[in-house]
Amino acid sequence: MKNISIALHGGAGTILRSSLTPELERSYKLELQKALDTGYQLLEEGATSVDAVEASVTVLENCSLFNAGKGSVFTSGGTHEMDASIMDGSSLNAGAVSSISGVKNPIQLSRLVMEQSEHVFLTGKGAEDFAKKMNCTFEAKDYFFDEFRYQQWLSVKDTDQFQLDHTAIRDEKFGTVGAVALDQFGNVAAATSTGGMTNKRYGRVGDSPIIGAGNYANNKTCAVSCTGSGEYFIRAVTAYDVSCLIEHKGMKLGEACKEVVHKRLKELGGDGGLIAVDTSGSICLDFNTEGMYRGQKNSQGLDEVAIFS
Length: 309
Description:
Blueprint: E1 5-13, H1 22-44, H2 49-61, E2 82-88, E3 93-100, H3 106-116, E4 121-123, H4 124-133, H5 147-156, E5 173-174, E6 177-182, E7 188-194, E8 215-217, E9 222-228, H6 230-235, H7 238-249, H8 253-268, E10 272-278, E11 283-287, E12 291-298, E13 303-308
Parallel strand pairs: 3-4
Antiparallel strand pairs: 1-5, 1-6, 1-12, 2-3, 2-7, 6-7, 8-9, 9-10, 10-11, 12-13
Helix pairs in contact: 1-2, 2-3, 7-8
């Protein structure tokens, strides 16, 4: 069998051992492993990299531990607005959605935008109308309700503060989820999904649904999914920047990721991390924060999940 690889993340930021009970740490690792195994099994069975990243992200969207899908945080209005994107490195086709509510799995809707519409990016009510046309599963508001996230929102409600994911004020964890994969046909793909910022206002959209910023895949180079302070990732065109350094400067995957995460992003003041896989099957999981929920698996026997630096 040819090389296959998959990697995923569930957010990066101020993730300290002291802030996670042993039970909660086990829960995170179990869900990461479940998502990793789900995508990898598809790759083993001959599915495409697009199939694999969609499936892995769907698992994470269905888990309330992560800020995507079911676990999405509350906006300033007490609602949930979700963003997602997916990209096929073999064709450079992509699909993305933002500011959607009620859709159980935004990543699945992103793929439908890519494959069943003439567009790349749909937003808000229009995206929801398309989801209904495509018979996507919708859930009631109580499906997305999580007491921990609700209390977090109440702590900043009616203020100008916003918060990245579900740690205490002044701690930061960027809860975006994502996956990248290489299939046996030599094609790479990337998928990213998020519930955004707690108490976000004005229809704010981060980097996750923006092709080239939070998500990118190109068979010439690699596939990348990002997690972090979205405004900086947008300004740095982070996901594409990794690919660009490989294509135009001849950098190796790890070298390009290090340049982007530890130099270019930090020079702007941005923090977070990314996962990437190239067409040889090499994987890079890089971040400039205390931790990143992450996992990687390949046909050479690599199989691990981790949280801390």
